[in-house]
Amino acid sequence: MSPDLARVLDRMLSAAERRRADGATGVDFAIMSLYRPDKGPSPHRDGAAVDIGVYAGKTINFMRTKDSVLAVAQFYRDMLGGEGEAKVDAKIALGLPRNPRMDPAGALAEYYDAGHPEKKNYYDITSTPGRVITEKPFTVANTRPVLKMEYQVPDAFFQRELEPDRSPAGGLAGAVAALRPEAQQAFKLLVEKDVGKVLRFMFPDGLDHLHVQVVRR
């Protein structure tokens, strides 16, 4: 594991202990994925990333808009350190939770994502307008995934659909500018406080977690 990621995890633990001492109960944070040696080129394979499904007691998921923003903002706040506590000795990038894609090419990629077969649950399969196919097997040539209505919710973070795993143009400032007003309000003050530039950039990542990776100093 990267020593920088170890310091991030240690800061998560100390922040959880502080909240527990202040009276918090229940699960403070939950790690969904850490070191994955079988994954292709990825910071997970290099022991330099962690995926977090719960933070500060709040679930991170595209369907939990408010909780996701509060959880990610609290994570960033903890990395910057509280009163009398130094910032974490690491540089990080944040992969923010995003909504399932609705554009034709994106929906197709989500539906047939072999690494995440659970994404199929978010889509109906249609062949012609108004007709839902229930027969199997489906073929890419004559079917089209359409995001189910119950999952067509406002994005927790970004104002518009962006390409996954790519940071918006303009670095960290560009990413903050691309955020929805509620998320932008939470992050602007933290970025101003981040004089040591702990956070380097942000980008849309998975549907149900906060991706944290350490980057070169």
Provide structural commentary.
With 217 residues, the chain is of the alpha+beta class. The chain has 5 helices and 8 strands. It has 2 domains: 155 residues, no CATH class; 48 residues, no CATH class. A hairpin with a 2-residue loop joins strand 2 and strand 3.
Which terms summarize this structure?
6-stranded mixed beta sheet, globular, single chain, alpha+beta, 217 residues
Helix-strand blueprint:
Blueprint: H1 3-21, E1 30-33, E2 49-55, E3 58-59, H2 65-80, E4 92-96, H3 104-111, E5 123-126, E6 144-147, H4 171-177, H5 181-193, E7 199-204, E8 210-214
Parallel strand pairs: 4-7
Antiparallel strand pairs: 1-2, 2-3, 2-8, 4-8, 5-6
Helix pairs in contact: 2-5
Number of domains: 2
List the helices and strands in order.
Answer: HEEEHEHEEHHEE
Please give the largest β-sheet: 6 strands, mixed
Q: Report strand %.
A: 15-25%
Number of helices: 5
What class would the helix/strand composition place it in?
A: alpha+beta
The geometry reads as globular
- Percentage of residues in helical conformation: 25-40%
Regarding quaternary structure, what we see is single chain
User: Gyration radius, to the nearest Å?
Assistant: 19 Å
Average residue pLDDT: 88
Distance between the termini: 17 Å
- As residue ranges, the low-confidence spans are none
**SS elements, strand count:** 8
